[in-house]
Amino acid sequence: MIKMTEQDVKETIFQILLKFSEYCDEKGLRYSLCGGTLLGAVRHKDFIPWDDDIDVYMPRPDYMRLHVLLKEESIGPYYQLKSSVYGNSPFPFAKIVDNRTIVKAKCNDLDNILWIDIFPLDGVPIDKRECKKFLKRAKRWTRVFSFSVANIGTGMTRWKAILKTPILLAARIIGHKRCMKKLVQMAKTYGFDESEYIAYVGGIEQTRIKKSDYTDCVDVEFHGHMFHAPSCWDQYLKDTYGNYMELPPENKRYAHSIEAYKKER
Q: Do the strands 55-59 and 115-124 form a parallel or antiparallel pair, or are they unpaired?
């Protein structure tokens, strides 16, 4: 195996995004950049310098259609969709992975191939208070899920790793399968097509978006190419990150620091 540099990792996952976006455009599937990827596109026209992952949103109907289409025609010879829908992933969202790579993850044993994340968007209550309560319940299950798959003994510091151990053990008793099932069940409570507001229900950052603003897409530059973004990207980024054009202090610039390898042919 050949150890990959940080730039190798970014270029590899960018190629997954590029092939994915081309496939979606060809098949008429809706998608958009989201999270730190959209923030990077707007603020840097590229990856956030200390970040090394890619996130996209898909409306649930398109997300499900993607699963059907990929059984008939793949994105590329080395790319594979990992998803609970297929039964080959424990996560309540999908990943497209590059099977030519191997990742030695520190936090869990599940992210072992370089990937991009695909988060399904679902309907949420139109009433703000009801929506907040709904998303808060989902966030609790998301946190339990993340604890249930985390490696014991990991943390930002040794002391934090020790303090987390009882929480991780309790979450393992509940189990990631139960958490994933609950999150998917909650996400499908309100249909995408029938709802005025949408969100990624299973996320830590649960930003509610008006559906009419989301579906009216624009293009933004990312790593030298143009990709789709919701027309409400400015409000979305403000709601998610606050003053998003201001760089965070250095001690808040968290990186995944992925240790990845390229398989030798």
A: parallel
Per-residue pLDDT, 155: 61
Q: What is the largest CA-CA distance in the chain?
A: 55
Contact 198, 122 (CB under 8 A): yes
Q: What is the chain's Cα-based Rg?
A: 18
Q: Rounded to an integer, what distance in angstroms lies between the CA atom of residue 91 and that of residue 101?
A: 20
Spans of the chain below 50 pLDDT: none
Give 130's DSSP letter. Answer: H
Q: How many CB atoms lie within 10 A of CB 198?
A: 26
The torsion angle over the Cα atoms of residues 150, 154, 159 and 162, rounded to 10 degrees, is: 50
- In this structure, the number of other CB atoms found within 10 A of the CB of residue 153 comes to 12
The pLDDT assigned to 258 comes to 79
pLDDT of residue 150: 83
CA 153 from chain center: how many Å? 24
Q: What is the pLDDT of residue 250?
A: 81
Residue with tokens 């934090």: 160
- For residue 189, which of 203, 176, 199 has the smallest C-alpha distance? 199
| CB of 218 closer than 8 Å to CB of 229 | yes
Within 77-149, strands assigned E span 79-82, 94-98, 101-104, 115-124
Give the tens place of pLDDT for each residue, 190-206.
Answer: 999 999 999 999 888 88
